[in-house]
Request: fold
Amino acid sequence: MTRDNKFGFAPLETKSVAPRERSVGPMGAAVRDAAESLTESTEAKVEQRRQNAEDAKAFRVAAGEGRVLTKVDISEVHTDDLPRDRLELEAVAQSDEMEELKASIRARGQKEPVELYRGPDGRLQLKKGWRRFTAISQLSAETGDAAFATITARVVDGDDLPIDRYIDMVEENVVREDLTFAEMAQVAITAAQDEAVKEQSADELVNRLYGALHKMKKSYIRSFVLVLETLRDELRWPKAISRNLGVDVAKALKAGQGDLADLRTRLNVAETADAQNAVLADFAKAAPKQEKPKLRVGRQKFEFHVGQTKVTARQGECRIVSKQDYASVPKARLQRAIKAFEDALKDEGNPRVTTL
Reply:
């Protein structure tokens, strides 16, 4: 029994009071949804920024390594920092092969990118792809078509060593066997004249530039280095010199045989590549012929039978195998038999009968 208070009513019984329902109103629901969306959006943005940072870093690494292709205005590409690995560039630029390459690019577009690097002055310099660059440059000048105003390229960092640029430049053409021995020798000579390259000798540079080639090919290149360095001004068609002719001329130069002054004079008046090579061939005849090393004949043998006895003959050895017990033969008799055997070999033209 409850007692009334001074106000005349008793306390409420909690069990009899229904709990109040607190439903979220429209405004509260909107605020809650907005807060949840903001949280999710913030987390998504943070994740997106993290992913963007990783992608940007990966892109910078790939770009620095030359794994990203880009379109470069043809006028921004320069070729004066790194000498080309080809002789007679003007002739190559006007050759039938260049016209064929231009026709292919005109019909199918540029399929292989060129490789560029930033030179010391910040300009883009050509490292690989001189023929492609030349073909697109000619097409741009001849047609005025915007399609040939740019070139697809890989742009790599220009902080590598100069010798590495020479190696990269020739690597592609050497693998494709697109360079003559004279051109490969000229690269070594040009690199040796580059003040930025540490090595002083073109002969030493052959190993650096063409380390992947067989030692015999590197020997051929060194022969052409000697020929080109000795007869640089007189050789107007170095690419026309065959491998064997170049090696023979190098031998003659090393031997110091032949009249070098007369050779220079005759080369200066040669009017064709064939005439030039004929002069070189005449000069090479003065070179001493090196004897080829004699091949060691492998150990040979033959076998035959005399009755029940098998005989095996080879260099320094004659083996007799039979059922005879040679250990039971008296030593003196065996010695006489061997002596008769040796005498029979010595007197091949006058056989004698020996009684044992």
